[in-house]
Amino acid sequence: MEYIKNRFYEKTSKCITEYQKLKAEHGDKVLANVTIGQVLTGMKGIPALITDTSKLDANEGIRFRGFTLGELRAKLPRLDPQGEPLPEGLFYLMLLGEIPEDEDVANLSKDWATRAHVPQHVFDVIDAMPKTARPMTQFAAAIVSMATESVFQKAYRSGVHKKYYWDFMYDDVMNLIARLPRIAAYIYRRCYYKDKHIEPDPRLDWAGNLAHMMGHDTDEVKRLMRLYMVIHADHEGGNVSAHTTHLVGSALSNPYYSLGAGMLGLAGPLHGYANQDVINWIFELIEELGTEEPTKEQLAGYVQRTLQSGRVVPGYGHAVLRVTDPRFTAQKEFADKYIKDDKLVDLVNNLYEVVPPILGSIGKISNPWPNVDAYSGALLYHYGIKEHSFYTVLFGVSRAMGVLASLVMDRLYGLPIERPSSYPLSWFKEQAEKE
Ligand code: HAX
Q1: Which ranges of the sequence are coiled-coil (predicted)?
Q2: Is the CB of 134 under 6 A from ligand 1?
Q3: Which of 271, 366, 369, 375 to mutate to test the pocket of ligand 1 (most atoms within 8 A of CB)?
C-alpha cells in the first residue's frame, strides 16, 4: 500500500517549503495580542499550533480538511449505500486532503488488516493488571508497551537523517492505528466477558472488526461503530488529547509514547471521560428520581442540584464551541432514524431541552449547549454495549486517527520541540498593573 504513503509525501512535501519560507521571511509578523485573560483561562484562542487535519469553528463545529460532518457523511465511501461512511476514508482525507475513491478505502482497510497483529507481550502487559484497573489505564499501558516495535525509534537511534523521520513515523502510525481495535476489544472481553476473546476477521473493515471482536457482531452495531469512529476522530489541534500527542511527539518521542500520553489526557473527566460521566450521572438521576421517565420539571430539579453541589453537568459546554455540537446532532439524527421507544435515548433528548436554558441563565458558562459526549453513551447502551467504564477507550481508538495523522505531518514539516514560556503569578500581576 505504498502508494498512499507516496501520495502523502508528494502532496505534503510541498508544504515543507511553505513552512520554511514562512519561518524565514515572516517570523516577525504579529498574529494576535495575548491577554492575561487568555492565559488565565487555559490559553483559549491563542493561535499557537499548526494542524492541517481539521479546524473547529465556534459557531459551526468541526470541518475535516474543509468538509463539515454532514458533507462527509454524504461524500465519504461506505460499504452500504444506506450505511455510515468508513473511518478509513476519513483518515485518508485527513492525511491527504482529498476525498478518497472506494478503492482507496478498500486498500486502506486491507493495509490495516495486514498490520493488525499485536505482539504477545502487549496482551501480557494488559493481563498483568487487575481486571478492576480502569480500561483507559489498560489501554494506555498497552499502547506504551508497543514502543518495543517502534521503527521510528530504531531509525532515530541508528542515526537516520531527520528529513526521513516522517517515513518511519508513517509506518509506526499505520501499525499503531491498525492494532488499536484488537487491543480495545481485548480489554473489553477481558473485563466484561471473562477473557473469552474473539479473533479478528481480516475481511472486515476497521470499525466493523472492532464491533466483531467486542462480540457485537450485528450490522446495526457495525453501522454505529463506523459513525462513532468518524465523529470522534479529530477536533483540531488544541484539545487535550491532540495537543498532548503533538507536544510529546515534539521531543521526538516515538508515536507509542506520544499517543499513550494523549490517551491519558483523554481519560480526564473534562475531556473524553465525560462520555462515561454522562451515563453515570444519568443513572444516578434515575436512581434519585425513582423513574426512567422523569418529567422535564424533575430533570430541571436534578440539574439544579448538580450545579448547587459544585459539579459540572457532564456532556454540556465546550472550550471552543458556542452552539450545539454537530457531533451531537449527527448522533441524534442517527437515533431519530434507527431507534424507536428507548427510554434512555428519550431522556437524553429531554435533557437537551432542559439543560441549555438552565446553564445559559447562570451567566458565567460560555457555552450551554451539548457536546459529543452527551449522546454517545445512550447509543452504545441501546445497542448492547452497556459497560460504560469502557466508553472512553472507544473514543480513544477513534481519536488516534486524527492525532496520529497530524504526528506524521509534524515530522514531515520538521516541527521543532515545543517550549512556551512560563512566569510566576507575580509577573502576571505586575503586567496587569503596568500602564
Ligand atoms: N456545567 C457546570 N458548569 C460549567 C459547565 C457545565 N457543563 N461548563 C462550564 N461550566 C463552568 C466552568 O466550570 C467554569 O466555572 P468556574 O468559573 O467556576 O471555574 C465556568 O463555567 C466557565 O467555563 P467555560 O469557559 O464555559 O468552559 P471551559 O472552557 O473552562 O471548559 C468544559 C469547557 C468542556 C471543560 C466545560 O464546559 C465542562 O466542564 N463541561 C462538562 C464536562 C464535559 O462535558 N466535557 C467534555 C467536553 C467535550 C470533550 O472534550 N469531549 O471529549
Answers
A1: none
A2: no
A3: 366
Contact 86, 79 (CB under 8 A): yes
- DSSP notation for 190-247: HHHSTT------TTS-HHHHHHHHHT--SHHHHHHHHHHHHHTS---S-SHHHHHHHH
User: What torsion do the CA atoms of 261, 266, 271, 275 make, to the nearest 10 degrees?
Assistant: -170
How far is CA 7 from its chain centroid?
Answer: 25
DSSP for 349-412? HHHHHHHHHHHHHHSS-S--SB-THHHHHHHHHHTT---GGGHHHHHHHHHHHHHHHHHHHHHH
Predicted confidence at residue 1, as pLDDT, reads 63
Q: What is the pLDDT of residues 263-283, one digit of tens each?
A: 999 999 999 999 999 999 999
61 contacts 71 by C-beta, under 8 angstroms: no
The answer, yes or no, to whether any atom of ligand 1 lies below 6 A from the CB of 392, is no
Instruction: Please give the pLDDT value at position 279.
Output: 98
Model pTM score? 0.97
Say yes or no to pLDDT of 77 above 80. yes
Element holding 67 (H helix, E strand): strand 67-68
Nearest C-alpha to atom 39 of ligand 1 is from which residue? Answer: 270
State which CATH number among 1.10.540.10, 1.10.260.40, 3.10.450.350, 1.10.230.10 fits the domain covering 274-382: 1.10.230.10
Tens of pLDDT, residue by residue over 42-52, are: 999 999 999 99
Residue 3 burial (CB < 10 Å; 0-12/13-18/19+)?
Answer: exposed
Question: Is 294 a pocket residue for ligand 1 (Cβ < 6 Å)?
Answer: no
pLDDT digit string (tens) for 235-265? Answer: 999 999 999 999 999 999 999 999 999 999 9
First to last CA, the chain: 61
Q: What average pLDDT score do residues 65-79 get?
A: 96
Sheet holding 54-57, edge to edge: 54-57, 61-64, 67-68
User: Which residues fall within 8 angstroms of residue 73, CB to CB, at 6 or more apart?
Assistant: 84, 85, 230, 330
Place of cell 460560555: 366
Distance of alpha carbon 293 from alpha carbon 346, whole angstroms: 8
pLDDT of residue 13: 87
Q: How confident is the model at residue 435 (pLDDT cuts 50, 70, 90)?
A: confident
| Catalytic choice (104, 205, 373, 410) | 373
- Cα–Cα distance between 55 and 63 in angstroms, integer? 5
